[in-house]
Design brief:
Oligomer: single chain
Largest sheet: 5 strands, antiparallel
Shape: globular
Number of strands: 5
Structural class: alpha+beta
Helix content: 25-40%
Length: about 90
């Protein structure tokens, strides 16, 4: 599943594949950050610094969700609450 968000001139693309989430954001220079929700406790410090505090908080809440649809709904809700607008969901 793919989610695309915009806020001002910024763009975020999120890919959800089972329990793995990939982030492509302008803040990371559009270099993908891949997070396996089953291995969240082993998240690399380098990745944490690239993602920022806001995204880390959002990610830490997701492991309790099971399906891609549940994960997508949570991400959409969280991003929209911080001013991001969903423009595409595939």
């Amino acid at each position: 599943m793919e989610l695309v968000f915009v806020a001002g001139g910024k763009l975020r693309r999120i890919f959800i594949n089972n329990r793995e989430i990939s982030f492509l954001t302008s803040e990371t220079g559009f270099h993908p950050i891949v997070i396996n929700l089953d291995k969240l406790n082993k998240l690399d410090e380098n990745i944490k610094s690239k993602m920022g505090e806001e995204q880390i908080k959002l990610i830490e809440e997701i492991p309790n969700l099971h399906s891609e649809e549940e994960i997508a709904k949570d991400i959409i809700k969280d991003f929209q609450s911080t001013g991001w607008r969903l423009i595409k969901k595939i």
